Amino acid sequence: MSETTPAAETRRRRPQSLIAAGNILRFLAKTPTSAFGLLVLAVLILTALFAPLIATHDPYLQDLTNTLAPPDSAHLFGTDELGRDIFSRLVHGSRITLTIIFLVTIVVGPLGLLVGTVAGYFGGKTDVALMRVTDIFLSFPSLILSLAFVAALGPSLNNAIIAISLTAWPPIARLARAETMTFRSADYIAAARLQGASPARIIWKSIVPMCLPSVLIRLTLNMATVILTAAGLGFLGLGAQPPMPEWGAMIATGRRYMIDSWWLVTFPGLAILSVSLAFNLLGDGLRDALDPKQMMKR
Amino acid sequence: MKPLRIEKMSIRFGAVTILPEVSFEVAPGECFGLVGESGSGKSTVLRCASMLLGTWSGDAKVGDRSVREMDLMERCRTLQMVFQDPYGSLHPRHSVRTTLSEPLKIHRLGDTEERLAQAMRDVGLPVDFLDRYPHQLSGGQRQRVAIARALILEPEVLLLDEPTSALDVSVQAEILNLLVRLREEKGFTCVMVSHDLAVIDHMCERFAVMKAGDIVEVLPREAILDGSARHPYAQELIAASLAYEGAA
Q1: Sign (positive or negative) of CA dihedral B69, B74, B75, B78
Q2: PANTHER family recorded for this chain (chain A) (predicted)?
Q3: What ipTM goes with this model?
Q4: For strand B206-211 and strand B31-36, is the pairing parallel, antiparallel, or unpaired?
Q5: Structural domain spans, chain B
Q6: Can you give the pLDDT at residue A293?
Q7: What fold is seen in the domain B4-247?
Q8: Nearest-Cα residue of chain A relative to residue B125
Q9: Bigger pLDDT: B212 or A298?
Q10: Which residue in B48, B76, B80, B91 has the most chain A C-beta atoms within 10 A of its own C-beta, making it the best mutation to test that interface?
């Protein structure tokens, strides 16, 4: 039995999670559908990061002498009714989409996880109270509820994000609660209680790691809905406000010219389609990759 | 070393009475066995005594302190438990190091590295197993980790809930020998639940036969072989067990 220095141990310990992450990525890359999802997302993220470099024009620059121009070499995807370059607007719009997804996810994930694990672990009255609140939120269609929130808060991108977050956490909470209930009476939870761990510590250290894979999967699948809801709100004029190049809003304004200028609606539509499809495929892939039986092999 | 005294412990779930009224005493440093068929309430006694179940009446005293009077931290350092199924009692996403260092963090004990290494040596596992995960360990190794976790807080009383029944026979013997050795070294008082009289014979000085939540008879170890049990159910249980051993 050799004595190892603490430094050596941390070096040996850290790779465990890195190896797991690497394995999951490798698993995803091997399946064609989830590989497609990963690829589209990588393109989306790179586009958002380097938007000013990729865009050929200023997304806000109007050119009233060249409105509704069909796609050609100067304007890859054509121009809109104010002569703005659609390609550049799409590229800059990816930033808005990513911001929405990111903000909604970091609000919804922890909130849903917290409500669900607390309800599931404590049970009894806590559970009843938290779950009835969840039920109330679940009993409205999410788009209608976000519409109501945006109408109350006033139309803007930030309010759209808040509204979407408020409507997206209940399914996550339900899921986390169901997961929690399956192992709250497990022996390892009893053992943690016998060691004097506080409920907060048990939830954070023992229960959250067990819920995390399914919550991650659910969040990924949710992102497609989030994108569609954001686009829907944009389309209805309640999300991003003009002149922001939000994809849903672009479709909304392009709708009037749809019959003779197909490119106004088609390209933002394709962008929304491919990104939400990518998230769905990736979520499906993650479900396979994070399956406990698969995890055992790692 | 402190004695453990269970006084008139009783618990019911709704209309079902699990334990009508159970009392027994365990001498300091003794290993006391609880035997009986499935559902006779053996494990429930341990879960009540460790306050995993809180809705019982009666009392459990370690020395002259009742487990109800102790605060959580004191109780954890007095009573610890080893569970039946080593596959379910270790958190699947925690490495052995996390599993063992968690109680040290909760109780703010220093010298973590040293204590971890000592705990591993105590249960006969190599120190570099600290960075393994439960699924990388065999059943016997997992149960050793579970025992190390129970003993790392140096409890006065160790409750063993069928610690070997999920393991195959050769590993059972190893775990039992380990428990015997640790008891000699550390001198804790011990209550062991089992349905296997051979295991009781190996570990315990005295044992109680339970039926439907009641203790029907408390017997010394020798009673397994010399047939001095009085109560018909105890006689039947011992005879059945011996016949099974003979056939096997």
Answers
A1: negative
A2: D,D-DIPEPTIDE TRANSPORT SYSTEM PERMEASE PROTEIN DDPC-RELATED, OLIGOPEPTIDE TRANSPORT SYSTEM PERMEASE PROTEIN APPC
A3: 0.88
A4: parallel
A5: 4-247
A6: 55
A7: Rossmann fold (3.40.50)
A8: A1
A9: B212
A10: B91
